[in-house]
Specification:
By secondary structure, the protein is an alpha/beta fold. Helices cover about 35% and strands about 20% of the residues. It has helices at about 10-20, 25-35, 50-60, 130-145, 165-175, 195-205, 220-225, 235-245, 265-275, 300-315, 335-344; strands spanning about 1-5, 60, 65-70, 75-80, 90-95, 100-105, 105-110, 125, 150-155, 190, 210-215, 255-260, 280-290, 320. Helix 1 (about 10-20) packs across helix 2 (about 25-35). The longest helix is centred in the middle third of the chain and has 15 residues, at about 130-145.
Length: about 350
């Protein structure tokens, strides 16, 4: 049965016409689902009872099953959802002074297999559907309240977004359509570990969406240890693709750099990074490693992180250290899912 949250607005219009409704019903249905966050057809009071019964027979409204929520002192909230097939995914709500952000998942597990990532240790099950992607936003928005509008979406949760490109693309179309969720394209970021065909697709089909690259190393030798995918898409090839990406100083590419003690935290690493990103409109986001139980890696000292940042700033590169949010909850990607498995 077709899921309404998997349809873009033009597809929704085609659907309502196909079942004998007038075209304007598409906007009514869209308003209920995306503006009023309705969970059922029975809430759609400006559609006749007969019309609602007709919809129930033809389509469904998918709603994630919230299994667990953990709330941090700083307001960060981690959500664990169960899907219809029993698989589980995570989302994170991050409130800040000038914006509210949600980090969404795109796959059940991940096939990239990064050595530092807890999600990858659970293996890969499947891609998320468009509705499973979109409903993470809707369910969390419903939970935090309409007054706490979620303005920013980052595709940095479980999975590699560019290995689920078509569903991610449709999800972004729903998120940014003013007749649906109406977010600004400037407020959406898709992160990749370096899937070159996917970067090419983004450049062609989603040029207004911000791109983030999980780089994490400045030599192929080190990056292959952290991200095995680097053997297929080495640093030089990925950087060449970034130079071709439609970015500028208003829409810079984000270089995500997970800094790990003794692995990639030296001054020499910082100097190599400067050479790699020269002449590319970027900003660098240094992410101190978020340690989890039995992790093989450690977080560098504050002094070492600050030294790394200063080398980049002195070279004229905008460089920020990501705040460690939700430290007392299961904040690392995949941690809440792993913890829940242990309790079952």
């Amino acid at each position: 049965m077709t899921d309404l949250k998997s349809l873009t607005f033009p597809e929704l219009e085609q659907f309502v016409i196909s079942i004998g409704f007038r075209k304007y019903r598409a906007l009514q249905i869209s308003q209920w689902i995306y503006k009023k966050l309705a969970r059922t057809f029975d809430e759609m009071s400006n559609i006749s009872k007969e019309g609602r019964e007709k919809l129930k027979k033809k389509v469904k409204i998918y709603n994630l099953n919230l299994l667990k929520k953990e709330l941090s002192r700083d307001g960060t909230a981690k959500y664990l959802f169960e899907l219809e097939d029993g698989n589980r995914i995570e989302s994170v709500f991050i409130p800040e002074k000038d914006r509210n952000t949600i980090c969404v998942s795109t796959q059940v597990g991940c096939s990239v297999g990064c050595s530092f990532c807890l999600t990858g240790k659970s293996g890969f099950s499947r891609n998320l559907t468009t509705s499973e992607i979109v409903d993470q936003y809707i369910t969390v928005q419903r939970d935090v309240g309409i007054e706490n509008r979620i303005s920013n979406v980052v595709f940095m949760g479980m999975g590699e977004p560019l290995l689920n490109f078509e569903n991610v693309k449709k999800g972004i179309e729903i998120l940014t359509d003013n007749r649906m969720l109406g977010l600004s394209t400037r407020k959406i970021t898709v992160s990749t570990s370096g899937i070159i065909p996917g970067i090419k697709q983004m450049a062609k089909e989603l040029p207004k969406i911000k791109l983030a690259l999980s780089l994490h190393a400045t030599t192929d030798e080190t990056r292959e240890k952290l991200i095995p995918l680097n053997k297929k898409y080495p640093i030089k090839s990925v950087m060449k693709e970034l130079k071709n990406y439609p970015a500028d100083n208003m829409r810079r590419i984000m270089i995500e750099y997970l800094i790990i003690e003794g692995i990639n935290d030296s001054v020499e690493d910082a100097e190599r990074l400067i050479k790699l990103i020269k002449n590319i409109p970027v900003k660098v986001n240094i992410i101190p490693f978020n340690e989890y139980p039995k992790s093989l890696f450690k977080r560098p000292s504050k002094e070492k992180i600050e030294t790394f940042q200063k080398v980049l700033w002195d070279a004229g590169i905008a460089t920020f250290v990501r705040d460690s949010r939700g430290q007392e909850i299961s904040a690392a990607c995949g941690m809440l899912q792993a913890k829940e498995k242990q309790t079952v």
